[in-house]
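Record type: ASSEMBLY
Status: queued
Input:
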Amino acid sequence: MPSTRPKLAVFKFASCDGCQLTLLDCEDELLALAGRIEIADFREASRRVVEGPFDLTLVEGSVTTPEDIPRLHEIRANSRVLVTIGACATAGGIQGLRNFADVAEYQRVVYAHPEYIRSLATSTPIQDHVPVDFELRGCPISRAQLLEVISAYLGGRSPNVPRESVCVECKRRGTVCVVVAHGTPCLGPVTQTGCGAICPSFHRGCYGCFGPQDTSNAPALSQKLVQLGMDSPSLARFYRTFNANAPAFRAASDAARPSPSPEGA
Amino acid sequence: MTRRGVTRNLDIVIAGASLERVPEFLTDERKSGRTPGMTEPAVGEKRILARADFPIFLGALRDLGYRVVGPTVRDGAIVYGPITRVEDLPIGWTERQDAGAYRLDRRSDGALFGYVVGPHSWKKYLFPAHERLWTASREGSRFAMAPEPVDGPSFAFLGVRACELASIAIQDRVFARAGDPGYAARRTRTLRIAVQCGQAGGTCFCASMGTGPAVGPSHDLALTEILTPQRHSFLVEVGSVAGARVLATVPLWPATAEDERAVERIVARTAASMGRRMDVSGIRDLLVNNPGHPRWELVGQRCLACTNCTMVCPTCFCQTTEEVPNLSGEKVERWRRWDSCFNSAFSELHGSPIRKSTSSRYRQWMTHKLATWHDQFDSSGCVGCGRCITWCPVGIDITEEVAAIRVAPATPRAAGDRT
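Status: finished
Output:
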């Protein structure tokens, strides 16, 4: 008897699988979830595959090879609602660092036979190639936010995923500001919340895992970071991690250290 | 008061003194040969509490069922948390504060309250950052609503500064107007033990705002720490019946005219050492008449829209309410969380924020805080505690912003013209 539950699919592109693993980490909620939604295609969880079209598709990873593009278009055509999950899918991920460098040179250095490698010069988010219904940020994504997105889909409402800064959560938790009280560099003021403000609670600055907050003023933060003693290369590296290719962080790192232009190569 | 109670409390002082290893018995009132009084003072009366008897004072609060919370050192700052013994207080600590900078520092003495205010404020107890308001469960085709119980611990706030008493009074008005049952219940149960500031911080300007440094009359108990090489004690002023009750089992000495003069000198010294000042004359009209001032654009370029100023502000009360359903859709909870006018979602209507630019959000915050708050709640929303200056990561200084607008105000506009 065919299921009447909405069909969920999970697909991946260039990524570490950590974000889709978050779905399996929902141990306490997984049974309730499976009661509301049919897990139709989720290779990390099961070999059983139910054909599309899918009602809700989660896409992890970034576009890095020529084959990715037609495959992505096919997934989009087969999905009613498409949600991208994680920094790779929403910003290009850590592999987005190639966007600041010469990929051919990397291939010569890393691989014995670079001629077997066929790769794009850039790592780009899913949104650059197909329309996306919702982007869920994070490296990795938050379990609670993933459940909120699925729950919102099932309830026919918008997900409640704040776009505000990490500072909001630090202050709600009562964490002492590491910038003001310790002089520790922190991306929290320009980064979107969602992680629970973990790093500052362990006296570390924010690494920007959730990408730029919606009113991100990186130039003003950069001035402060320079005052704290950061030199230009360190400042550029500070913004160039998991969300290096997110426009606000990309602009901030370019301003700190203009990248050698790969376009001329 | 029973004889038994006194005996028990004297046991505590001996235990407390041995823990501290400070021979304060030799330097405080006990040395005078006088004996402490053991009668409950009346409201308005003043007494002397010896530093060595502070553990008895904390014990008396606990015996009355209060959960004592107050300043304590954590993560490189003085924050508010549980105080179970006198050593939990930041003994011998102080801090240096400036715009965007805070550093703990050692004092050369053993003062219990030798610092000003840190990143926390008492609002975290009266207006918690996360609060469930109600739960609704599906029952067939209907919902059953269960409001959140408003019971909870009775807090004794230990070390409430003058500016903070003023900020609690402001939030009392805000939440009373909103008819907030949770706030009212928590506030009614709370005992406020004020402490006069013995020094001002680098970003303090309570003297400009008329909220300090002298502690006003609205408290349950007010302490002034008198600390000299010869003496370490507290002048205690009784502000309420609840405060008097605490003192019933605490040994107290009479306060002399010299003690009162010492307190006056401490307050005067603090008033003279304010790190900042703000000219508030005509400030409502100044800000309301300057919505187009170029300074807003300049501050908008520096502002991170990170919300730190509003989160640390002891009077900011902005909040968001969220419905949190479970996966099955059978149960939903309404939660209230701290929010900020610096968040774009805060002014979102019909899918788009009204205040898109950061400069418009900064203008909204400062104009509300210093100007239109008067219209809404009959006072300024600013108490001059300086937290927004210290805890702004990029050091935006509200006193500087006011001064800049005052130096070159725009041509006054007609009332109502606020585009």
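Annotation: Confidence is low (pLDDT under 50) at residues 1-27, 414-419 of chain B.
Annotation: Residues 3-271 of chain B form one domain.
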